[in-house]
Amino acid sequence: MSDIHPTAIIEDTVEIGANVHIGPYCHVSGGVRLGDGVRLESHVVVTGDTTIGADTHIYAFASIGSSPQDLKFSEDEETQLIIGARNKIREHVTMNPGTEGGGGVTRVGDDCLFMVGTHVAHDCQVGNHVIMANNACLAGHVELGDYAIIGGLAGIHQFCRIGAHAFVGVGGVVVEDVIPFGVATGNRAEVAALNLVGLKRRGFERQQVNELRAAFKDIFLNTQGPLTARMEAADKAYPEAPLVQELIRFMRAEENRGYSLPSRK
Fold first, then answer.
1. Domain-by-domain residue ranges, the chain?
2. pTM
3. Domain 3-141 adopts which CATH fold?
4. How many Å apart are CA 209 and CA 259, to the nearest integer?
């Protein structure tokens, strides 16, 4: 049995799983599918072709699944927002579905925390265990890897990729890709170091971290030769180092964008 407050408006097209809680003055419409154990606090709006995974908890005044803030978007586009399981989506969060021109799907993984006022725009691809702090915003087509952390008030430019386990500091403005395991800070954010605190918390072996630190120094702090040549040299130097290889795969996956790099000042 589900617990639905009498003031909530639930349209007939909505699919509701078991043990769902829908609080006062919520409005759920369109092709929404709520998984088992989903909890909507008061005044939540969920609409569109939106799927919300089991045990996700959405707090007051969040707006989930409304049309993208993209002038090219047409209301007759058949696009989706897919949200995974066990996410916490706090007050005033907004998440938009995809667009036909961007692949059609905005996707959020499992076990993420979206703090007050965060925004996930159209066609974003968000991994698992991601944290976005208060009022951080993703523009369209952004990719966030697993365990990425985005600090409060940070803004991520459209089409940017933020690698797994990366950390973007408070107020950061990211206009180029941030490597996995990197720490990026500042307006036009620069990768200053590796996210060693995050690596330690997640239990990576010391040898793997040391290999990554050495490769980071060789690729990003060494000023001899072009970046691509330094990356290829690191690939050859650390062929069996899993974290280094993940970093190099990330860099090879996209050749048309730059990277947030350390300051040369």
1. 3-141, 200-253
2. 0.95
3. UDP N-Acetylglucosamine Acyltransferase; domain 1 (2.160.10)
4. 21
